[in-house]
Structures are given as structure tokens and as C-alpha cells.
Amino acid sequence: MTKNFKYKLGEGGYGSVFKGKLRSGHYVAIKLLGKSKGNGQDFINEVASIGRIHHVNVAKLIGFSVKGSKQALVYEFMSNGSLDKIIFSEENKETLGWKKMFDIVLGVARGIDYLHQGCDMQILHFDIKPHNILLDENFNPKVSDFGLAKLYSVEDSIVSLTAARGTIGYIAPELVYKNLGGISYKADVYSFGMLLMEMVGRRKNLIAFVDRTSQIYFPSWIYDRLDQGEDMELGDVSDDEKVLVKKMIIIAFWCIQLLPIDRPSMSEVLKMLEGDVELLQMPPKPFHQLPLDTSMEVDGCESSVDKPSTSSSAVTIINSNA
């Protein structure tokens, strides 16, 4: 199926992904998990989460494999790879125009909204980032990688976690700090906002170089420019494209508000994306100093920091709908 794992598509915190081909002739992506944590809990999380999902903007799980200690997940193949390879690559960053980028934003928002309220269980992803947004042959986005996802009752407005989880740069502050508010679907909203910022800036949010001598947090820099009515330096773009970018920026700032209670739900995000930009109010600047009584709460952290997989063993599909 994988030709001895010759065609590697990428890797992440839970293993490596290879291109494979089913007997039917269909190409698939084989996610070969690395050493399991918690008795394979990451594998169980992913199968349990995505096995109940059927949405055009969520990666489709075709099957899974267990052979001894080896575990693998079989997904539909996405020919254009992950979003990060488009927006962070100098070679590829001009591939998509702003209209298509906006369509990708809409698709991702619809996928996350479906996870939050479209299933019989509430699915919180906890790792929304460009690396986990896959693009098909038409650049339609699919939310992927459910290794950190958790399932909760749809009735739960606040959920419990034993450890912070996510990726630095996208993880919601309430997952790390006390007293900011309870953990909820608003954590995914925050990550979506950070993803939006990176799509607009075509760069990582952590550090942005304004000139050779100074560094500044990119969302803070762009907020000041927008608030002061300055041009976003988008280059040669149409007025319609400028409107789309402005809409993306304003919505991103709503999503990354410090307190979860101040962030919109993904349903509200969709309404803002589909509505008139002139109806959008500029939110408060979200980068405030944490309250004095706020303290860190990091008893442990489940992260998807990239790490290589050392396994090259073959797998056997034991549950496939292909």
C-alpha cells in the first residue's frame, strides 16, 4: 500500500504521514503513529472523534489499522498538502489570491462549527493551526489531526481537562492560566483567530520583523495600523479584496480576545464572515497584561510539537470502507 513508506508527506507530534494506494486505485494518506502515550489514548481519541464525523470540511477517515504495537489511521488523500506549506513558503505564498484564501477561511470555520455543534457529541479539537488544515485538489480545506481532540456532551458549556493541550502560538490562554475563564469551545475559537492572523500576514504570529533592529508581536502591530486607519500594505489588490482582508482581520481580533467570554462562537464567526464588513465593530485590543491574581496552571501539557517517527513497518488495513 505504501511502497515501504517511500512517499512521506509530512510529520507531526503523533507520527509521520505517508502516501499510499488502495487496491481500488484510490490514493490515501497513512498516518503512522509514533510511540503511544497513555496506552494508545491518542489513537483512541482520533478514531473516536473522527469516526463520527461526516462533513465536507473535515478530513475523512477511511479506516484504521492495528498490528501489534503499530497503529495507523487511513485518511483520504489531499493533493495540495497542508495550509502551512502555502502561507509560510516564499515559493508558494502567492499561489492563492485573497478570494481563495477567504474561501478557505469560510471552509475551516464551517468545519470547526460542525465539530462544536453538528454531531451527537461536542468535539473540541484543541490543535487548530495551518499544519492541520489540509487542502484538496481544488484547495477546499479539511480540518485534520484529532490526536488532541476531546469529546464532551453537547450540554457542557464548560469542560474539564487534566492538562493543557495544544501548540505554542495557537493555544488559548485559559488552557494555561487560571482565572481567565473556564475551558470550552472558545479555546478552538482562539486558535482559529491565530490561524486567521497567519493567513493574513503570511507569516508566523510569534515574531514579525518590522525592520532590522526591532521585533514586534504581529497581531499587535496590525491592530495598531488598522485602528489608526493606515494601509495594510497588501500590494496590488482590488477594493473587493481589501474588504475581504479587513473582514478577516477584524474577526481574527474578536477570536483572540484574552477572556473566553469576549470571544464569539464559531456560529457567530460564520455570520460575521458572511455578513457586511461595515457592520463589524472593531473589538478591544486583545493584548492586555494578565490580571495580577492570574497564575499559571501547568501540571502537564499535551503538545503536538513536531517530532520524527522511527517506524517503517508495514500495516494491514482491518477496517476500511474504501
Description:
The chain has 322 residues and is α+β, with helices and mostly antiparallel strands. It folds into 2 domains: 8-79, Phosphorylase Kinase, domain 1 (2-Layer Sandwich), CATH 3.30.200; 84-301, Transferase(Phosphotransferase), domain 1, CATH 1.10.510.10. 27% of the residues lie in helices and 18% in strands. It is built from 7 helices and 14 strands. It has helices at 41-50, 84-87, 98-117, 186-201, 218-227, 239-255, 266-274; strands spanning 8-12, 15-21, 27-33, 61-67, 70-76, 122-124, 133-135, 141-143, 150-152, 164-166, 208-209, 215-216, 301-303, 319-320. The strands form 5 sheets. A 6-stranded antiparallel sheet has the order 1-2-3-5-4-14, with helices on one face. The chain has a two-stranded antiparallel ribbon with strand order 6-9. A two-stranded antiparallel ribbon has the order 7-8. Helix 3 (98-117) runs antiparallel to helix 7 (266-274) and helix 4 (186-201) packs antiparallel against helix 6. It is globular, with a radius of gyration of 20 Å. Residues 207-216 and 306-322 have low confidence and may be disordered.
- In spatial order, strands of the major sheet run 1-2-3-5-4-14
Could you state the CATH homologous superfamily of the largest domain?
Transferase(Phosphotransferase) domain 1
Task: Indicate the CATH topology of the largest domain.
Answer: Transferase(Phosphotransferase), domain 1
What is the C-alpha radius of gyration, as a whole number of Å? 20 Å
| Mean of pLDDT | 80
Helix content: 25-40%
Low-confidence stretches: 207-216, 306-322
CATH class of the largest domain: Mainly Alpha
Number of strands: 14
Q: Per CATH, which architecture of the largest domain?
A: Orthogonal Bundle
Specify the overall morphology.
globular
